[in-house]
User: Fold these one by one.
Assistant:
Number 1:
Amino acid sequence: AVIAVTKETRANETRVAATPETVKKLAAAGFSVVVQAGAGTAASYPDADYEAAGAKIAKTAAETLKDADVLFKVRAPEATEIAALKSGAIVAAALNPYQDKETLDALAKAGATAIAMEFIPRITRAQVMDMLSSQANLAGYRAVIEGAEAYGKALPMMMTAAGTVAAAKVFIMGVGVAGLQAIATARRLGAVVTATDVRPATKEQVESLGAKFLAVEDEEFKNAQTAGGYAKEMSKEYQAKQAELVSSHIAKQDIVITTALIPGRPAPKLVSAAQVASMRPGSILVDLAIEQGGNVEGAKLNETVVTANGVKILGHANLPGRIAADASALYARNLVALSTLFTTKEGEFAPNFEDEILQAAVVTRGGAIVHPNLKTA
Ligand code: NAD
């Protein structure tokens, strides 16, 4: 079977869905891989390296897709790519399924079997395919680096002949995969780190990383985690108590990194304009949830907002794209793991759509949108 990898076309997308390393692995598993010329350039993977790894390089997207049984992408394919697909072809990408209905409709209409990588279930066997985790981890790391870069002071305490430089205070809001890596990264840089989340399980994780945990630990908090491991949307009352607790804390922080998300819902607003105004000049907020509407009031997508009191709010979209070589490498390995569900033990191409992982992640098949969360009445 043929796996195609086309060049990403969405704004600011620097990642690529295969690397020379994964091309080798896919070839060893019996796939032929076609990569569009220049697909890896922005992530520092030159065409020649893909070729050396066994890929065929095709000039255009249409040429790349001509015989493809499978298309691997980072973001959803464009309409022109969908039109070039064979009916029944598999597409695996971060399809943004709750927001990008247009692409889902186009994929369904084209008869594609589309896999939304965001829907890979959080079971142990699927961890190796979990792009939300592989990318969130790097986003959490990068958020601290961006925050540190924008901050006009040092993160570690330094004792010098000219006097002492104080350690920065970093506060992480939302301690999922991204938040945990942000804590670890800020600690490595020598900051004094605190963190908050609504899921009780995070308290021990925060403390095990050497940071201090801060949260309203009431009855609602004790039940805030879904069976799937995600957060529930909290009540207005809880959010008010949370805001009050956070208020006095936030005013003393130097860098605040917010990562709070609720699947299928807009990001919860965790930091108000008044709280931002309470921070000292030169303080930094990094809003990782900006693509889902943002956790910080006043944050703007792809902008650095400087408030009247001299606080900067960073709203970078796609932080993993700012560490494109590693982000691509991990995502491409997620896809290699996924591809093992497409072949039998004997190496024959026969995707097992009964597998619980594909059951959870396939969103279009046989001409229709098939995922229960996405079907409109
Ligand atoms: P996420 O990206 O959906 O959300 C980020 C964090 O925001 C979560 O920790 C969430 O609890 C928090 N949050 C939501 N509302 C909040 C609020 N009002 N205030 C403060 N925080 C709020 O989460 P994620 O990174 O995808 O991780 C979710 C869970 O899934 C974690 O426990 C993670 O370890 C687990 N997980 C399991 C697997 C697996 O078993 N295969 C894989 C990945 C992640």
Note: The pocket of nicotinamide-adenine-dinucleotide is lined by residues 122, 127, 130, 132-133, 136, 173-179, 196-199, 202, 229-231, 234, 259-263, 268, 270 (CB under 6 Å).
Number 2:
Amino acid sequence: TSARPKLLLTGPIMEAVVERQLEQHFTLLGPDNFEAIIAAEGAEIRGLATKGKMRVDGALMDRLPNLEIVSNFGVGYDTVDAAAAAERKIIVTNTPDVLNEEVADLAVGLLLATVRELPQADAYVRAGKWLKGPYPLSATLRDRKVGIVGMGRIGKAIAKRLEAFGLPIVYHTRRAQPDVPFQHYDNLIAMAKDVDTLVLILPGGAATRNLVNAEVLEALGPRGILVNVARGTVVDEPALLKALQDKTILAAGLDVFVDEPRVPEAFFALNNVVLLPHAGSATHHTREGMGQLVVDNLVSWFAGKGPVTPVGETPWPK
Ligand code: NDP
């Protein structure tokens, strides 16, 4: 075995600075010829760095019998089967905290863009339509009550911003948090009935699939604004499309979709939706911080110092 552990990449590596650091510590394999590499040297691969869409499931782990760690670029790790990893004593790490403020900024920006129709208004000016008359009046944030679904690291950063905006805030999670000053709802439908604005910032995966369904949208009602910066899978996408078409809710701001980068084309025809290309953490500053944490987790692990930011399912400390 070589001195430098073999690290398999599931996709193009993040930032150049990250790749340079990884090259110093590891023999990098993939993402080209992924299958052939696994067939030829699967048993020598000790680490995996992953980003984005490829599923890292138990079947893949079984083809890498000496895999010790999966380092995920992103705080959301719904593409990694962390339970299957734990069964196999494989460490999974993610990139929490370094992106909280960035994603919260984007969430609030998307909320404002959706309520005040900023992209639509921009298009109006560019098309020369202002010369023919003023842009129609929009909805407002001023009379809104916001329900945040997910009150973790990023949810709290969003709440802090919206508090400064003077908006009443409530939240839905599975467990109430005694240290959070906002009203907690056990039941999402009950909360959707009591608010007119929902901001989604919780993990994707099986446990949250289609959590926001037709019934929740109905409860949100005709003044309703939905902002999704969580994962596309959290929303029943066809039900949302229909709710926007039928004006069951007023508008939506979406950063995430079920089958990215394929956005259902029917959304493009709607004027009451703002669409972003999964841009929550997408700045040079924050992507670098995330990349550094991907590197730090791998380097720390192979230096015998343990993972820096293991996910909840990873039993650590052992
Ligand atoms: P945290 O783990 O800190 O918080 C997650 C929150 O979601 C907790 O409050 C948790 O509370 C709640 N939650 C989890 N499961 C459920 C459920 N089934 N029903 C209701 N609430 C639930 O995560 P972060 O704040 O760091 O990140 C949240 C998510 O945001 C990520 O997992 C990722 O998917 C997404 N994200 C999206 C980005 C983008 O670019 N658009 C960028 C970064 C993150 P409880 O356990 O009590 O239910």
Note: Residues 75-76, 96, 99, 103, 150-155, 172-175, 201-204, 207-208, 229-231, 255-256, 278, 280-281 surround NDP (CB under 6 Å).
